Amino acid sequence: MTEKKWKAVSTKPRTVTIDKAAEVLAVSTTTIQKMMRDGRLHGIKRGRDWRILRSDLEPFVADAGSHKSAPSNKTER
Description:
Blueprint: H1 2-10, E1 15-17, H2 18-25, H3 29-37, E2 43-46, E3 49-53, H4 54-69
Antiparallel strand pairs: 1-3, 2-3
Helix pairs in contact: 1-2, 1-4, 2-3
């Protein structure tokens, strides 16, 4: 599912909004802002809006995909 969202972004400019980054990573915009604040993600301020380079999101997209496909350690009782 994340791959489809990412493909939709790949034909667009090199930067994405906080809203689009949150959609691609399946997290809230607040989480994206926290990631920018603590240095895990870098943003560029353009006027009143923040933009994030797609290349900075790629490691998180790949990481999110690997977590979803990983087996769960939980066992049903």
